[in-house]
Amino acid sequence: MGLLGLLRAVIASVCLGSIMAQKVTQNQPEIPVLEKEYVTLNCAYEADSYSYSLFWYKQPPSGEMIFLIHQESYNELNATKGQYFLNFQKATSSISLTITDLELEDSAVYFCALRDHSDAGA
């Protein structure tokens, strides 16, 4: 097995659509992994409302932002999509992304983002 390029998790603080205070924190450094293995990236967040969405994106070396998967706060079932699996823990305000069957194309910067729905009726 060849060494997969470094996967990097970075601190991302993203607020989409609300002026209320929110915080998203990722504290993991670059993570070297092998092809066909898996990696788990962690994200902690603070939300000011009961209803919100959490998103994961990746940014490969080419620079574009690619949407991967999302989780709604009201959904108790963890979202899955292809090689992406979420572990959503509302009680501890955390969500982790596990990526399985890693390939060289998975080498990227990964971002966790939060959208608060408190302004949905505005």
Automatic annotation (TrEMBL):
List where in the cell it is found: Cell membrane
Q: Which residues form the Ig-like domain?
A: 22-122
GO CC annotation, single: T cell receptor complex
- Keyword Ribonucleoprotein in the entry? The reply is no
Q: Which UniProt keywords apply?
A: Adaptive immunity, Cell membrane, Disulfide bond, Immunity, Immunoglobulin domain, Membrane, Receptor, Signal, T cell receptor
InterPro entries documented for this protein: Ig-like_dom, Ig-like_dom_sf, Ig-like_fold, Ig_V-set, TCR_variable_region
What single Pfam family name could you report for this chain, choosing any that match? Answer: V-set
* Any GO BP: adaptive immune response
Q: What is its main location?
A: membrane
On whether Phosphoprotein is a keyword of this UniProt record, the answer is: no
Q: Which ranges does the record mark as transmembrane?
A: none
Signal peptide positions are 1-21
**PANTHER family annotated for this entry?**
IG-LIKE DOMAIN-CONTAINING PROTEIN (PTHR19367:SF45), T-CELL RECEPTOR ALPHA CHAIN V REGION (PTHR19367)
Q: What is this protein called?
A: Ig-like domain-containing protein
